[in-house]
What we know:
- Helix 2 crosses helix 5 (99-109).
- The chain folds into two domains: 3-224, q2cbj1_9rhob like domain (Jelly Rolls, Sandwich), CATH 2.60.120; 247-280.
- By secondary structure, the chain is an alpha+beta fold.
- 30% of the residues lie in helices and 22% in strands.
Amino acid sequence: xxxxxxxxxxxxxxxxxxxxxxxxxxxxxxxxxxxxxxxxxxxxxxxxxxxxxxxxxxxxxxxxxxxxxxxxxxxxxxxxxxxxxxxxxxxxxxxxxxxxxxxxxxxxxxxxxxxxxxxxxxxxxxxxxxxxxxxxxxxxxxxxxxxxxxxxxxxxxxxxxxxxxxxxxxxxxxxxxxxxxxxxxxxxxxxxxxxxxxxxxxxxxxxxxxxxxxxxxxxxxxxxxxxxxxxxxxxxxxxxxxxxxxxxxxxxxxxxxxxxxxxxxxxxxxxxxxxxxxxxx
Length: 281
């Protein structure tokens, strides 16, 4: 099957229009070769009017729907719960969690059997205020709520009025966190997808003060079952604990043709019913 037809088939499965400039096969190769660790930068992946609606549903920062984190290393606000999403954001998150979109992610990252996070643990809307930042770090490797292994982070920027002087750039660092190797502007309708790992360090530059600007993002984590899990087939209990089956029945089941066994069972049921009827009469 040609690359273009495979790409068209993958995109046709999605429940919303997606726009990519390369085939899914080429995107996969680019993702795996990306430095300093696997990642994608996809511009205009989603319809702009959809992101406009997400912005419109963003709760005011004075609402109690927000959790505000203000520490030495992290200054940002996250939506408290996935249940606080507006109707359009809920529909958007549901589409991102759908099997069709998970297959799309698998096609462009090579990570199979991805699982969604309908609870949006640590995800959903996030807002960095003026001075907001996130120092160099590697993301948590598990979802503490479900116990699943975090594999991919996806960031969808909602900054319609962003300019380079506003700050808030995403930085990707080398594996010992000594050098920033890539800087990504959080421009409107830019989607960043990157693989989570113990040495996949990244950071958010401080949002410039005095610009009357806040850095907005909608982000989601995708998971897999822990790779340390030892896979196995069905495990049976010792025979001593299993129900005993009479030897004659076991032998007859192995030797008698199935059609004859079914006939004998029907005759036995018919005889039992006739005997019960005669007794009742």
